[in-house]
Amino acid sequence: MSAREWIGKDFYRELGVSSDATADEIKKSYRKLAKENHPDANAGNPQAEQKFKAVSEAYGVLSDPGKRKEYDEARQMFGGGGPGGFNFPGGQGGGGFDVGDIFGQAGAQGGGFGGLGDMLGNLFGGRRGAAGATANRPQRGADVETDVRIDFVEAVKGATLPLRLSSPATCATCGGNGAKPGTSPRLCPTCSGSGLVSRSQGAFAFSEPCQDCRGRGKIIDDPCPECAGEGVSTRTRTLTVRIPPGVDDNQRIRLAGQGEPGRGGAQAGDLFVRVHVAPHPLFGRKELDLTITVGVSFAELTLGGTITVPTLDSKVSVKVPPGTASGRVLRVRGKGITKRDGKQGDLLVTLQVAVPSTVDEKAKAALESYAEAVKDQDPRPEITELLQGR
């Protein structure tokens, strides 16, 4: 169906509903009319068949929220909505207004269909070519991503790293205009610098990229020897990347404007640096807290005492209360990760009893003496109670 035919129809009238009808009302009316006029129930009735096609077409537009919105906007734009349809030749409104004039004027201005063309193109499932839609328009440069690997301490404390990149950048020889030094691009005579040319076909005017300048609006007679007229060349550059304190593994750091250069004077893209953190042999991490597991003896847990624990900077003394169970976590305030905003974590010390694989005679005798002294103390009363009940 052409744009002229679509605009000249009143889909609300076809379904017998008002323009503010709800989706349920539209569906209910469609089902009723489709059932009444279905070809299977009206064999040999061309009027019923035509009505069935008309209500199906109307429902296809009004049941889709996006298409209905575009249709309503077109009705409002051209003063439609009455029983007589829209004011176009061939419709019943008889307003003497030609939709072809709209398209022709839009094409003459080098802008394609404009808002109306986009609206109708969406409704009919078509679209303007990507090259035509973006021809001669400034285009933001693409974003670039790279990876860096740092050690655990650098991630906690922050670091400043040099980063070497080989990536597209504005050509240093021509300054990005694509022309050989001493020369300049000239305005394309075919499209007058718009990057688009228009052609008409019936009621429609189509815009497409200019073939002579490839949609750029300018012609380069003597291209730059370094970038071959593209205005962009690949070069190696060194950047300084500041890794903030407390960065997480796999976190991305954004460097604004350090990606690929833009086209037509548009801004450059961004550079994203993905950080990979190597594990530490002793320390782990839980958000802003540092974690460490420390081996202690049975006597230290039973009798209590003070143990020395390392930190990333130095060491701290940690008091172990008497009767501490193996696996208990002790917290040392303020010895974790400090971020730039002042937030600070702690050092979490997990105590784990260290069981010797062998003992000498003296230690063995002491352990046997201890076992005899505490033989009436059941270390697993819950299990003993369960076993006795069976």
UniProtKB/TrEMBL annotation:
Zn(2+) 1 binds at residues 171, 174, 224, 227. Keywords: Chaperone, Cytoplasm, DNA replication, Metal-binding, Repeat, Stress response, Zinc, Zinc-finger. Zn(2+) 2 binds at residues 188, 191, 210, 213. Residues 10-75 form the J domain. Binds 2 Zn(2+) ions per monomer. Residues 371-390 are annotated as: Disordered. Residues 158-236 form the CR-type domain. Its main location: cytoplasm. InterPro entries: DnaJ, DnaJ_C, DnaJ_domain, HSP40/DnaJ_pept-bd, HSP_DnaJ_Cys-rich_dom, HSP_DnaJ_Cys-rich_dom_sf, J_dom_sf. The keyword Chloroplast does not apply. CDD domains: DnaJ, DnaJ_C, DnaJ_zf. It is found in: Cytoplasm. Residues 373-383 have a biased composition (Basic and acidic residues). The J domain is necessary and sufficient to stimulate DnaK ATPase activity. Zinc center 1 plays an important role in the autonomous, DnaK-independent chaperone activity of DnaJ. Zinc center 2 is essential for interaction with DnaK and for DnaJ activity. NCBIfam families: DnaJ_bact, PRK10767.1. Participates actively in the response to hyperosmotic and heat shock by preventing the aggregation of stress-denatured proteins and by disaggregating proteins, also in an autonomous, DnaK-independent fashion. Unfolded proteins bind initially to DnaJ; upon interaction with the DnaJ-bound protein, DnaK hydrolyzes its bound ATP, resulting in the formation of a stable complex. GrpE releases ADP from DnaK; ATP binding to DnaK triggers the release of the substrate protein, thus completing the reaction cycle. Belongs to the DnaJ family. HAMAP family: DnaJ (MF_01152). This is Chaperone protein DnaJ. The lineage of its organism: Bacteria, Bacillati, Actinomycetota, Actinomycetes, Pseudonocardiales.
